[in-house]
Design goal:
Blueprint (H helix, E strand, L loop, with lengths): L8 E7 L11 E4 L4 E2 L2 E8 L12 E15 L6 H8 L7 E3 L7 E7 L6 E17 L6 E8 L1 E5 L7 E2 L13 E5 L2 E2 L3 E9 L3 E3 L8 E4 L4 E9 L4 H7 L4 E8 L5 E11 L13 E8 L11 E5 L2
Parallel strand pairs: 2-11
Antiparallel strand pairs: 1-2, 1-7, 3-5, 4-5, 5-9, 6-21, 7-8, 8-9, 8-10, 8-14, 12-13, 12-18, 14-17, 15-16, 17-20, 18-19, 19-20, 19-21
Length: 306
């Protein structure tokens, strides 16, 4: 009996022109990933009838929801469609800003090592969140939170479908790149992470177990900058509610860059805790705000190909 192995799991996607509908002849694009928790969940509806013998007479499946995370090592160009969807903007001359454009995908999971291959097709998938994490001695990681409409399982690919060629880019690491804070290079950062949240909420109606296209909230970006505690300068920005700017630049071994510019941030916590005799660090949580200057965005992502 063949048992599915993660080493032979594949993940593909295709942009939808109509929410929840897979194009008739899709060209599926491979998505690099390290972990996937994308699945269907259902609400439960239990009969409230009282029988006298304490038994439950009936139970039904309720609303269907697609949700979960897709985690990957951040690679140049390989995830740009999903990054664009998470931001709600459009890549314009290699610059991406926050916007209001909705994008949905059909996502296909393939379990190709089973005796009969299985294809799990998730439709109406939108990117609800995007979390980036950079820490020393690690690859930079990115996690997408997905909210979708429905799931079907088949033993064959979509009719007329074909696969695009997988990319050959390498992941970004934490060794090559830079961070500036308030316009000055800061070399004492031990970790930086941030999350873009879109506030997608399913909308159910009578006559259907699946959602209409979900409602969407504000673009909220929060993060944390952890540094060695070497002076009061950064900590005082939290104390005095002083606005600042954070720019994270990642460079891969081929010289490709992503620059993540948060042009207007406020720190909303800072604790130089001591837990032993080693170096003291301070974690500075921040929120990225709309910048009314030339950026017109809470986050500006710039890509530069070598």
């Amino acid at each position: 009996m063949a048992i599915a192995n993660g080493a032979q799991h594949s993940l593909f996607y295709i942009a939808e022109s109509t929410y929840g509908t897979t194009p008739s002849t899709p060209t599926l694009i491979p998505l690099p990933h390290t972990a996937v928790s994308l699945n269907m969940s259902k609400d439960g509806i239990e009969s409230e009838k009282l029988r006298g013998d304490r038994q439950v007479e009936d139970f039904r499946h309720g609303n269907r929801q697609i949700g979960g995370d897709v985690t990957s090592e951040l690679e140049y160009g390989e995830l740009d469609d999903w990054i664009e969807a998470a931001m709600g903007g459009s890549w314009t001359t290699d610059v991406l800003k926050s916007g209001s454009t909705r994008r949905s995908f059909t996502i296909q999971r393939r379990f190709g090592d089973l005796a009969t291959a299985e294809f799990h097709n998730h439709t109406g998938c939108e990117i609800n969140s995007m979390a980036v994490s950079v820490a020393p001695n690690q690859m930079a990681t990115i996690t997408f939170g997905v909210v979708g409409k429905d799931l079907s399982i088949s033993t064959s690919q979509f009719a007329g479908s074909s696969d695009a060629t997988a990319g050959t880019e390498v992941p970004f690491d934490s060794f090559t790149g830079s961070i500036t804070e308030g316009g000055s290079t800061i070399a004492t950062v031990t970790a930086i992470e941030f999350t873009v949240e879109n506030g997608l909420e399913p909308l159910f109606s009578v006559g259907s177990q699946t959602t209409n296209q979900p409602s969407i909230g504000k673009s909220r970006i929060t993060g944390s900058l952890t540094t060695y505690f070497d002076s009061k300068a950064l900590y005082e920005k939290f104390i005095n509610e002083t606005e600042s700017e954070i720019v994270l630049t990642l460079t891969d071994v081929d010289g490709n860059d992503y620059e993540f510019d948060f042009p207007r941030v406020k720190y909303n916590s800072g604790q130089p805790d001591v837990s032993g005799e080693g170096a003291v660090t301070v974690a500075m949580d921040f929120i990225a705000l709309y910048n009314a200057g030339s950026d017109l965005s809470n986050l500006v992502i710039t890509r530069s190909e070598a």
